[in-house]
Recover the amino acids of this structure.
């Protein structure tokens, strides 16, 4: 069975919205972590908002290895409306997101990534279909904005790995253990 892996940049106070506006001090360890995560993935789930933002940026980007990965990977988009802009290998999910992801998990392939899509990540975490949560905690307090973990039920997590980076990021990988008891 494939794994669903939610990967997200968050501020120290948990804000995930508009992470590109608060990312600071990038380093080689953060780069290597991203490359390691996408190396196991061959499909991506995105929300419609993230899709619209990313399809305007990534097709012309030379930020590697993510540009090559995201431009080639099948992108399944949670959307109640047709995709206004086309992007290679992008498919709108027809119907129930959770059911679609459960079916995708049971198909052959590598890990399924959820990147930059707060509402999608929250829905999948709430439904219990996420296997791993990989956070890159940015050393900044944003103070306002949508937080990745707000509004979720109790969810048990087991730490797989934690690494501090030279620029102060904390890379924290968790296995989702299920509802907290």
């Amino acid at each position: 069975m494939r794994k669903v892996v939610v990967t997200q940049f968050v501020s120290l106070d948990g804000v995930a919205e508009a992470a590109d506006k608060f990312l600071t001090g990038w380093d080689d360890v953060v780069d290597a972590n991203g490359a390691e995560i996408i190396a196991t993935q061959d499909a991506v789930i995105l929300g419609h908002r993230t899709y619209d933002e990313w399809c305007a940026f990534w097709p012309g980007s030379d930020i590697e290895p993510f540009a090559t990965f995201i431009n080639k990977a099948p992108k399944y988009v949670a959307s109640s409306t047709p995709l206004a802009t086309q992007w290679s290998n992008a498919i709108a999910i027809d119907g129930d997101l959770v059911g679609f992801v459960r079916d995708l998990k049971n198909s052959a392939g590598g890990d399924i990534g959820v990147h930059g899509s707060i509402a999608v990540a929250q829905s999948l975490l709430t439904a219990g279909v996420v296997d791993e949560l990989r956070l890159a905690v940015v050393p900044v307090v944003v103070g306002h904005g949508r937080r990745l973990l707000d509004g979720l039920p109790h969810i048990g997590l087991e730490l797989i790995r934690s690494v501090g980076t030279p620029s102060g990021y904390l890379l924290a990988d968790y296995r989702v253990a299920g509802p907290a008891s």
About this structure: The chain has a mean pLDDT of 95. The CA atoms of residues 93 and 180 lie 30 Å apart. Strands lie at 4-11, 41-47, 75-78, 90-93, 111-115, 132-138, 156-164, 170-178. The two ends are 25 Å apart (CA to CA).
